[in-house]
From TrEMBL:
Stretch forming the signal peptide: 1-29
Protein name in UniProt: Alpha/beta hydrolase
Alphabetical UniProt keywords: Signal
Organism, scientific name: Paeniglutamicibacter cryotolerans
Region of interest (Disordered), residue spans: 409-434
């Protein structure tokens, strides 16, 4: 079909209400035509711009039809209503649809489409109070003595390997097995391995046009994203590491319609490459380059992965999938600007997350969740989890193929707004592409040195100490960490005891408030303002929220006192992760420790709270590391503490205390890992509905694997994908020896047909999220309810109709029986096969044409304009109408003809249906 094809939404009369037929409803006829537009408001709903709301007795269906192609980045779109997150819509034929059970009176004008915190369409979202510019540090942190970003002693060599493409679950097209190897020359012994995985980006290009398909169409060239990390690979290889950067273009081209956004496929691709490397290392048949450079030279028990954007989520899941029989071992990972749709934590795997402050793709910095969840996911998990907030860095420039002008492939600055004071191209804080890649390479190398060797000289770049490296150039970096060589002293929850003195207030608050757990929301305004408090997009509605202590004061000396652990042991530092509310500038506080004998010491922090800059209309509420060093001469007995207090030293302040740790430099071995805690995998299930029962129960199995000794807790959410019942969620505890959770799903018996081939609109979804002593692999699944009723057939009783000027061309389409879902179909305008002139757009009511076919020439016929008329038969109904209003003064001559075609789909429409209309002058009938 021509790209010029247009689409109409057709009114249907149901129970006295007008309902609009919309693309993307659960049951569809033939594949949706190439171009279409949702244009007419629905009754019980509204239409505004590219948004449509359809309301029924059970809730609302929200549809968004963007004018332009969605960004080809890592983040996925979400819908917000009046600034509040509703969920992540699913795409079908270019229209994104989200069902919200129970939603009433939603206005389309109040909807916003947001991707990674950036508004793509609709009203701008509320933003918090903020400083106008960044606070200049009083002094620069000390330089590390041994710079991990300094070029090593080895020369390097490189080559590309290609293997047979592999089939990945859920993808029709096989995935390429291609990688760029950069290795040291002359390095003796078996070398640690660093494997890199790029994220979601365009896969092909022609001139300045970018495409997301695979393999590339004839005449188009591939975008070699896997070659974009040459700076990092060359640095690491010069230091003695063997580096392998793998290609994932096939996954990028296919991950839009899978529930996990491709993380499972990416993980399998990573593991397949690692298995292949291990096989070559042990003598498997290989090319001359592989034999010379890799065979016998790799230490496959010392592997670190590096993932960028969706590649970050992919390598993390590869670590989650670890098995005792693997011929390799992932001992660390670096996640660069990663997505975190599944909230999966690689238990026992040291992790560094690089968060670019000017990220214009994953703008909400959701990768912070890997650190926050890692802080408390499993007893015995002491693996360092650290955040590196890189000021002035954007999402794309870590990869040269995603950087404008660096290669022949088209690319852009993902930040988008060149005039932005904090992140625009003229901002003093913005990094050049070369500086950003150099800084990224330094921090990747710091992690490699820390995770792959016994050398801890670079750990202070990662663990919140606040040092810097000369090789990182002008970049300003903030770091904060959990776990490692730390002991928790404060983890705010409902058991936390605190009190205030002076002009101060304190409250325990929820980061987000989706469920009712009896605590106040932290009230951070703005979408994605805090990466610490992001609910799972579109998946959880009732899960417990992370909590914090909100402490504010209006007079210096005011304080918040908390009960402290009695024994800090040999630790001499206390690290607090603190969010500084940007509405208050230049605030600070001290830490007062008191022991059981009444002795106390008031400690100033190392450094000050930084006022983070406003960028893109918002400030990231990010937890900075505030370190307090207990003086060596202090008389306070740290083995007998009774309390610790935060004492405001500025005239006023407002902070959020996330957690606190007694800390010292170094790493600590973990006893917990992804192989010895409970592992959960949701399995899809199919059940056949019994029309004789009013209510039935089906079960979705969640198998539990691994040998584990500690009880595990997970949160399991059930959602009705046909969206007539809503959501339910609860926590489950699994004890050692238990091998399955059977999740009950209650559904109504019915004697109407349900189209279970459309996953987004039928059956029930199940999502599992780890809470403690657990990992999740396949975290989403479904229960498909097979209909016992026969599939109805579509027909038109009267295909040939007559209308006159001032009247209506009308056909009635009918299903042979009702369905449990909306049915959508379309009729395409074609050139009439009978003699006579074809109906022109000028003969239709002009307002109707303007609303439904904007920009079309009045002189065009319906087929020339490529008109596609959508119709919808609502659930539990059987009829819809297709209508065209004719002008009273239409110049019809002796009459005009209109012909539409409903194409066969071999499911609902067995044979093509041709609709014909004769439109005559007034009084001619």
């Amino acid at each position: 079909m021509s790209a010029r094809a247009r689409s109409l939404t057709v009114f249907t009369l149901v129970g006295g209400l007008l309902v609009a037929g919309l693309a993307g409803s659960p049951a569809q006829a033939a594949p949706l035509p190439e171009a279409r537009q949702v244009v007419v408001p629905a009754a019980g709903g509204s239409k505004h711009g590219n948004f449509v709301v359809r309301e029924d007795n059970y809730g609302s269906t929200l549809l968004w039809s963007p004018d332009t192609a969605l960004p080809m980045g890592g983040a996925r779109p979400e819908l917000f209503l009046d600034g509040k997150l509703l969920g992540a819509p699913l795409g079908k034929g270019g229209t994104l649809t989200l069902r919200v059970p129970g939603l009433r009176n939603a206005k389309a004008r109040s909807l916003s489409a947001v991707s990674g915190g950036r508004v793509l369409d609709g009203p701008t979202l509320a933003t918090p109070g903020r400083p106008a510019a960044a606070q200049t540090p009083a002094s620069l942190p000390a330089l590390v003595k041994v710079d991990p970003g300094k070029k090593g002693k080895y020369g390097t060599e490189s080559f590309t390997y290609t293997q047979k493409s592999i089939k990945l679950d859920g993808f029709a097209t096989k995935s390429e097995m291609k990688a760029q190897v950069v290795a040291p020359k002359g390095a003796k012994g078996k070398r640690p391995v660093v494997l890199m995985l790029h994220g979601r980006h365009g896969t092909c290009y022609s001139g300045s046009e970018t495409y997301l398909d695979w393999p590339c169409a004839a005449g188009n060239k591939p975008i070699h994203s896997y070659r974009g990390y040459a700076t990092q690979q060359q640095l690491l290889a010069s230091q003695g590491y063997i580096t392998v950067s793998i290609s994932a273009n096939s996954i990028n081209a296919q991950d839009a319609e899978v529930a996990d956004a491709g993380s499972g496929a990416r993980a399998e691709l990573v593991r397949t490459h690692l298995k292949q490397l291990a096989a070559w290392n042990n003598g498997a048949a290989a090319t001359a380059d592989i034999q010379r450079v890799l065979r016998g030279h790799m230490n496959m028990k010392r592997v670190m992965t590096v993932g960028h954007s969706r590649g970050g989520e992919g390598v993390n899941r590869a670590a989650v999938k670890a098995g005792s029989g693997d011929p390799f071992k992932i001992v660390g990972q670096v996640l660069i600007a990663p997505t975190d749709f599944g909230r999966q934590v690689a238990v026992g795997t040291p992790t560094t997350v690089i968060l670019p402050y000017c990220d214009g793709d994953v703008s909400d910095l959701q990768g912070q969740q890997y650190v926050d969840q890692g802080a408390r996911i499993a007893t015995g998990d002491n693996s360092l989890k650290s955040s590196v907030l890189m000021m002035g860095a954007n999402h794309n420039y870590f990869n040269s193929y995603w950087t404008p002008g660096a290669t022949g492939a088209p690319a852009d600055d993902d930040w988008g707004d060149p005039s932005d004071a904090g992140c625009g191209t003229s901002s003093k804080q913005r990094l050049s592409p070369a500086d950003q890649r150099a800084a990224g390479a330094t921090y990747v190398a710091a992690a490699a040195r820390t995770f792959l060797s016994t050398d801890t000289s670079a750990i202070s770049l990662l663990d919140g100490t606040g040092s810097r490296a000369a090789s990182a150039g002008p970049v300003v970096v903030h770091t904060a960490a959990t776990c490692g060589k730390r002991r928790a002293v404060i983890r705010p929850d409902r058991t936390t005891k605190f009190r205030v003195k002076g002009n101060a207030k304190a409250v325990l608050c929820d980061g987000f408030s989706l469920g009712d757990f009896g605590t106040a929301p932290c009230s951070v305004d703005g979408v994605g303002a805090s990466p610490h408090w992001l609910p799972v997009s579109g998946l959880e509605t009732q899960a417990p929220s992370p909590q914090a202590l909100r402490f504010s004061w209006t007079k210096a000396g005011s304080s918040m006192q908390l009960t402290a652990p009695r024994d800090l042991g040999t630790y001499r530092n206390i690290d607090l992760r603190v969010i500084a509310d940007p509405a208050v500038r230049k605030q600070n506080f001290t830490l007062l420790l008191r022991d059981t004998s009444g002795r106390s010491v008031n400690i100033k922090p190392v450094g000050e709270l930084t006022d983070l800059p406003a960028v893109g209309g918002m400030v990231h509420y990010w937890g900075q590391n505030m370190r307090f060093v207990i003086p060596a001469k202090s008389k306070v007995d740290v083995r007998k503490l009774v309390s610790l207090s935060l004492v405001g030293t500025s005239g006023k302040g407002k902070i959020y205390l996330l957690d606190g740790f007694a800390s010292s430099s170094g790493l600590r071995a973990s006893t917990a890992s992804a192989t010895n805690v409970a592992r959960f995998n949701v399995k899809n299930a199919v059940i056949k509905g019994d029309p004789k029962q009013a209510e039935q129960v089906g079960y979705v199995s969640v198998p539990v694997s691994n040998s584990f000794t500690r009880a595990a807790r997970v949160w399991i959410e059930v959602s009705d994908l046909s969206a007539y019942s809503g959501y339910s969620g609860r926590a489950y505890t699994v004890r050692p020896g238990q091998r399955e959770i059977k999740v009950p799903v209650t559904f109504a018996g019915d004697d109407v047909y349900v189209d279970d081939s459309y996953e987004a609109g039928s059956g029930y979804g199940v999502t599992v999220t780890a809470l403690s002593n657990a990992v999740t692999d396949q975290y989403t699944g479904s229960l498909a309810v097979k209909s016992a009723a026969a599939r109805p057939k579509l027909s038109v009783a009267e295909t040939d109709v007559v209308a006159t000027a001032g009247g209506m061309v009308r056909w009635t389409v009918e299903l042979s029986a009702p369905m449990g879902q909306d049915y959508t179909g379309w009729a395409i305008a074609v050139k009439p096969r009978t003699a006579g002139s074809e109906l022109t757009l000028a003969s239709a009511v002009s307002r109707w044409v303007a609303l439904t076919i904007p920009g079309a020439s009045q002189q065009q016929t319906f087929s020339q304009a490529g008109v596609v008329m959508n119709f919808m038969i609502p659930a539990y109904s059987t009829r819809a109408t297709i209508e065209v209003p004719i002008r009273s003064l239409a110049k019809l001559g002796s009459g005009q003809q209109l012909e539409l075609l409903i194409e066969a789909d071999r499911r609902f429409v067995i044979k093509p249906i041709t609709l014909r209309a004769k439109v005559l002058p007034g009084g001619s009938r």
